[in-house]
């Protein structure tokens, strides 16, 4: 098949003010897209409306990217702009994870909008003004095979996500860095020729360089006063809340009556932890948590570590056996601070390596006691490290050399070192993930119990306990499938109202109405009457199950059991064993099966039905003025020296005075007077200057 040409429209509209879009300023930048040999994955179809064309994206043998001259024109319109809106009308295939729009140069994503059906997320990728990669994640599912209008509006550090003209999220984030290189690539429906393939239909893909561009997609949003319908909806919500409050007050009153009967009793209950017994109200320290025994239950809170006030010549650092950072002696070497025991390898122009170690505030040369071991890998697979002179082969097991991952934390090998990652079911207690605490999956909603059981939290996991109306048949099951029905008609354990008749059902009973009557506890769903206790599958989503419980409709996702040979692969793609569902690693050398996960470039990746979906590794929040991401690590850490920070919390009240006595706002930069390659920057009242090697 020869070269094909696909005509799509991606408009960039430039406007200085107002919400109207001037047609004379509309520029069609994707009038002509040239696709590679063998392309057969995009066809024109009927869209959400007939005013413009829509295209169906299929397969993975496509290269939908803008020609060089069109990309340069788009970059010119976007460069330096701090207000723009990405708009698209789409219908994404169920559970597909793919890129809607991507502007990137080399490995740097300057602007990318991605929709993950596997994790029900919308992700906005960009680079910050500190030249750091940033991903803003919005929990929302677009991959449901339904039409959606989507807009992401950016105004400096303000981001708003609209879906179907509803404001879903509004956040304050780090401002994007929009100095995009002229030779950046512009892709539609994919990240590049090998990854991020969007599957579904797209229409009206636009970028509006103007504030509040979402109003061009949803004109009704341009109003400030609520309508009568808004007011009536608010009144209805208030009435529902009043009903809930009344029922809760009755339950609270009954609970207080029962508690009053226990005032005359006292029984001390102890707590047993790691073989040690603690009495009531006794406290102890467990790793990075302060724990107390309260009525036989262990209650722990994460230790709050205040920033240490370190004297000159010292810096905060973690030491073995302590949770919080302590002041440690430092050495200055190559413009960086190294703490006691840190080593640094220096290589000269001839390739000779010298190793130095920080001891007693001075860098001492370390003479190796034995030569470097011979490597059994090609030279192209050998990696030079910053803390040793001996190279290692790619894929070296750094964790086997010793690590500081302590409580509920595993050591994970990276390209040039290792890091700590919390075990499944745990979250970090400090920024290096060395100590982790249990996640309450039940409270956070990360549960897979079926409708016959209730979630009970356990360390690192959870347990599904049979609900009322069921009992355990003695066969182990992680999701509650061992719970079997109790026949309430025979036992008389039912609460049917006087106007209903009790019928036994799986997991309970149904209070059914006589023909022609409406009875207590019924639900209305999709304009149909559902009886209390009735269970059904959604017509619009075969992977969701709903039930009517005392007048309330409860819906949840289907539970996946990969041990079941009849598992629905449409709803459970992680259970697919076929070769066509395998994924290729980013390096092109490894393959993964559906459901496998791995870590790559500080991202957690997963293979599901032949598609790779990656999202940023979770990092604990850091509450400090200056942060830096250390070499070989993924999460930012606090630093005291502003000149070492790659990210700062700008305070416009803290200005700098340059060599010409000109006041500079925090975050501004300039070329130092009398030089050509020395760039200075104001960081909250501190001036930091450095020589640009590329300039030299």
From TrEMBL:
Origin, by domain of life? Answer: Eukaryota
Quote one Gene Ontology molecular function term: calcium ion binding
According to its record, what are the GO cellular component terms?
cytoplasm; extracellular space
Q: Which InterPro entries match?
A: ConA-like_dom_sf (IPR013320), EGF (IPR000742), EGF-like_Ca-bd_dom (IPR001881), EGF-type_Asp/Asn_hydroxyl_site (IPR000152), EGF_Ca-bd_CS (IPR018097), Growth_fac_rcpt_cys_sf (IPR009030), Laminin_G (IPR001791), NOTCH1_EGF-like (IPR049883)
Q: Which residues form the signal peptide?
A: 1-18
- Using the record's annotation, list all stretches that form the EGF-like domain: 438-473, 485-520
The entry's keywords = Calcium, Disulfide bond, EGF-like domain, Glycoprotein, Repeat, Signal
**Domain Laminin G, first and last residues per copy:** 52-225
Q: Answer yes or no on keyword Disulfide bond.
A: yes
Q: Show the Gene3D superfamilies listed in the entry.
A: 2.60.120.200, 6.20.200.20, Complement Module, domain 1 (2.10.70.10), Laminin (2.10.25.10)
The answer to whether the entry has keyword Repeat is yes
PROSITE patterns referenced in this protein's UniProt entry, alphabetically: ASX_HYDROXYL, EGF_3, EGF_CA, LAM_G_DOMAIN, VWFC_1, VWFC_2
According to the entry, every stretch annotated as the VWFC domain falls at 269-328, 521-576, 581-639
Q: Identify this protein by name.
A: Neural EGFL like 2a
- Lineage of the organism: Eukaryota, Metazoa, Chordata, Craniata, Vertebrata
């Amino acid at each position: 098949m020869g070269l094909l040409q696909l005509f799509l429209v991606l408009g960039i509209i430039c406007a200085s003010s107002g919400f109207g879009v001037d047609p004379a300023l509309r520029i069609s930048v994707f009038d002509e897209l040239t696709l590679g040999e063998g392309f057969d994955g995009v066809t024109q179809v009927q869209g959400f409306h007939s005013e413009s064309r829509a295209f169906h994206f299929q397969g993975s043998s496509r290269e939908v990217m803008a020609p060089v001259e069109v990309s340069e024109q788009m970059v010119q319109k976007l460069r330096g702009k701090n207000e723009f809106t990405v708009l698209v009308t789409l219908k994404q295939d169920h559970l597909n994870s793919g890129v809607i729009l991507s502007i990137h140069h080399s490995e740097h994503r300057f602007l990318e909008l991605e929709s993950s059906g596997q994790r029900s997320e919308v992700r906005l990728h960009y680079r910050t003004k500190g030249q750091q990669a940033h991903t803003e994640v919005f929990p929302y599912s677009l991959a449901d095979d339904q039409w959606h209008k989507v807009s992401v509006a950016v105004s400096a550090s303000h981001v708003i996500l609209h879906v179907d003209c509803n404001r879903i999220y509004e956040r304050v984030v780090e401002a994007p860095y929009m100095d995009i290189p002229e030779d950046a690539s512009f892709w539609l429906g994919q990240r590049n020729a090998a990854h991020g393939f969007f599957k579904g239909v797209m229409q009206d893909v636009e970028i509006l360089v103007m504030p509040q561009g979402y109003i061009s997609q949803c004109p009704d949003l341009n109003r400030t006063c609520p309508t009568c319908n808004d007011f009536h909806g608010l009144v209805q919500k208030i009435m529902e809340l009043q009903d809930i409050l009344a029922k809760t007050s009755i339950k609270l009153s009954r609970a207080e009556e029962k508690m009053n009967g226990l005032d005359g009793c006292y029984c001390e209950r102890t707590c047993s932890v790691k073989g040690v017994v603690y009495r009531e109200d006794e406290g102890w320290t467990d790793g990075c948590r302060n724990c107390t025994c309260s009525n036989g239950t262990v209650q722990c809170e994460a230790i709050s570590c205040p920033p240490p006030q370190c004297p000159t010549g010292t810096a905060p650092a973690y030491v073995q056996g302590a949770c919080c950072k302590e002041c440690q002696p430092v050495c200055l070497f190559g413009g960086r601070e190294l703490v006691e025991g840190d080593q640094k390898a220096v290589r000269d122009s001839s390739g000779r390596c010298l190793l130095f170690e920080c001891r007693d505030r001075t860098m001492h040369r370390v003479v190796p006691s034995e030569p470097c071991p011979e490597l059994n890998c090609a030279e192209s697979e050998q990696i030079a490290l910053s803390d040793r002179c001996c190279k290692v082969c790619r894929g070296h097991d750094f964790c086997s050399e010793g690590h500081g991952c302590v409580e509920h934390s595993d050591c994970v090998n990276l390209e040039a070192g290792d890091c700590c990652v919390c075990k499944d079911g745990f979250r970090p207690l400090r920024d290096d993930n060395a100590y982790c605490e249990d996640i309450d999956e039940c409270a956070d909603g990360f549960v897979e119990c079926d409708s016959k059981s209730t979630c009970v939290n356990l360390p690192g996991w959870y347990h599904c306990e049979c609900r009322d109306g069921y009992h355990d048949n003695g066969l182990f099951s992680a999701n509650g499938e061992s719970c079997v029905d109790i026949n309430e008609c025979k036992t008389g354990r039912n609460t049917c109202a006087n106007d209903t008749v009790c019928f036994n059902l799986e997991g309970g009973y149904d209070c059914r109405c006589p023909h022609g009557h409406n009875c207590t506890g019924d639900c209305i769903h999709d304009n149909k009457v559902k009886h209390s206790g009735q269970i059904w599958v959604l017509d619009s989503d075969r992977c969701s199950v709903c039930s009517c419980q005392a007048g309330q409709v409860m819906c949840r996702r289907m539970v996946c059991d990969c041990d079941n040979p009849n598992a629905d692969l449409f709803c459970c793609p992680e259970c697919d064993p076929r070769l066509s569902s395998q994924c290729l690693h980013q390096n092109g050398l490894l393959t993964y099966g559906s459901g496998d996960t791995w870590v790559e470039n500080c991202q957690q990746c997963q293979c599901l039905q032949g598609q790779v979906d990656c999202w940023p590794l979770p990092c604990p929040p850091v509450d400090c003025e200056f942060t830096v991401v250390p070499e070989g690590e993924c999460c930012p850490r606090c630093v005291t020296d502003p000149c070492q920070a790659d990210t700062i919390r700008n305070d416009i009240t803290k200005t700098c005075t340059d060599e010409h006595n000109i006041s500079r706002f925090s975050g501004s930069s300039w070329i130092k007077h009398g030089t050509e390659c020395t760039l200075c920057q104001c960081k909250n009242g501190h001036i930091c200057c450095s020589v640009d090697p590329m300039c030299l």
